Amino acid sequence: xxxxxxxxxxxxxxxxxxxxxxxxxxxxxxxxxxxxxxxxxxxxxxxxxxxxxxxxxxxxxxxxxxxxxxxxxxxxxxxxxxxxxxxxxxxxxxxxxxxxxxxxxxxxxxxxxxx
Length: 115
Fold this sequence. Notes:
With about 120 residues, the chain is mostly beta strands. The protein has one helix at about 25-30; strands at about 10-20, 35-40, 50-60, 70-75, 80-85, 95-105.
């Protein structure tokens, strides 16, 4: 369990289209080449400590003729951002993918600076 000992908790959230490979014959759609999409997300404000980050697919457009395989995660989480990582494998063909994320953690409080 992550315990937040400060009185101020911040919540940031966002949405990102990771790729739209059907439009230009990209690797996720053709099923060839590296099957990973990695994007750096920078928080609009820094947290005081490493926040908890959750990610989820909010839109996916997959070929119905192949198996649907997907792995999405937040990696390299710091006080200022994280990497949003999507992977697929096998014969899966993905046209488009949009991901939503949320970060929750301690933020600086004006009371922290009182001596």
